[in-house]
Amino acid sequence: MKKIKHPLLVLFVLVLMSVNAQEKKKYKIHTVAFYNLENLFDTINDTTKYDEASPIMELNESLRAEAYKRKLHNMAKVVADIGHADTKNTPAIIGVSEVENRQVLVDLVNEPELLQKDYGIIHFDSPDKRGIDVALLYQKALFKPIDSSSHELLIYDDSTRERVYTRDQLLVSGKLDGDLIHVIVNHWPSRSGGEARSRFKRVAAGKLNKRIIDSLQSIDPYAKVLTMGDFNDNPTNDSMKKALKTEADKEDVKLKGIYNPYENQYKKMGLGTTGYRDAWSLFDMIAFTQPFLEKDYSSFRFYKAGIFNKSYLTNKEGRYKGYPLRMIDAGLSGGYSDHFPVYIYLIKEE
């Protein structure tokens, strides 16, 4: 056999072989998303909850059914659109927050935009004083739940020592196309009363989140854990950096570490998911453990993170131009949520 002696020619041959090998590989891709649905309440006055303050309940009774129908349609339209341009599918898994009860989720997944995807629902009632919960929706053909649990956040007001009732954290374990993953859905305490005064609540939520992840990693250090939600804090706040111990750069994430792909989007690009007082905040995020960063694509790995902020979701004029277009601002004919959804793509070699 004649030997190739020229080093550049050898390099060219090796690169060509590598490119050809890559071209032959095919990958599965799934979207995992989170969306704060902003007050997805039904039209029934529940005396056990403070639902009178929801935008729908504030309407004249004759208009509530129409408003609820429009809200469901608009939320379903967005959910169906997240990631569709790249995956040609709706999200395999989507965490949601600010839902009143299980029935509103049943109504949502039965909207025409989502019905054929046959979404399952995992939901627990939480002790939140407004009566809003978190939940997980999943395509039954793609994700098979194994276990689910609701984790209570016990926090108390510093001055009164009375309990602050807020959302539980939802943990769901299951198999995504055969891969075992764990998903935590969050809606951490708000900044009501000011960021500094309420900070301890979100730090406590971060510590609870970290304990849940630690418990999974004590069983399996290589556990694939996704934690998603409306954290009511930015990626750089103490609840994320000190309590949850997230990292901004992949190379800094060690085994049992947590990567937050949204931190650099916030710090370096100035992106956000919700606006308030003429400033952007990036409260909605999906962070995950180190095994999603491995380069062996025999199981699902992280590919990309994004904010779903298509033009139709934004205000086109006025003081809040560019901010999320809320239904309360757009009236019965339009509007969505005061938050943009977030998503990541997971890929695996077929």
Descriptive account of the structure:
This protein has a single domain (26-349), classed as 4-Layer Sandwich (Deoxyribonuclease I, Chain A). The model has no long low-confidence stretch (mean pLDDT 90). The strands form four sheets. It has a seven-stranded mixed sheet with strand order 5-8-9-10-15-12-11. Strands 3-4-2-1-17-16 form a six-stranded mixed sheet, covered by helices on one side. Helix 2 (61-81) packs across helix 4 (102-109). By secondary structure, the chain is an alpha+beta fold. A hairpin with a 2-residue loop joins strand 8 and strand 9 (179-187). It has helices at 7-24, 61-81, 84-87, 102-109, 112-115, 195-219, 238-243, 262-267, 327-330; strands at 27-40, 93-99, 119-123, 133-139, 143-151, 155-156, 163-164, 169-176, 179-187, 225-230, 246-247, 258-259, 274-276, 279-281, 284-289, 301-307, 342-349.
List descriptors:
6-stranded mixed beta sheet, 29% strand, 9 helices, alpha+beta, 7-stranded mixed beta sheet
Question: What is this entry, summarized?
Answer:
By secondary structure, this protein is α+β, with helices and mostly antiparallel strands. It has helices spanning 7-24, 61-81, 84-87, 102-109, 112-115, 195-219, 238-243, 262-267, 327-330; strands at residues 27-40, 93-99, 119-123, 133-139, 143-151, 155-156, 163-164, 169-176, 179-187, 225-230, 246-247, 258-259, 274-276, 279-281, 284-289, 301-307, 342-349.
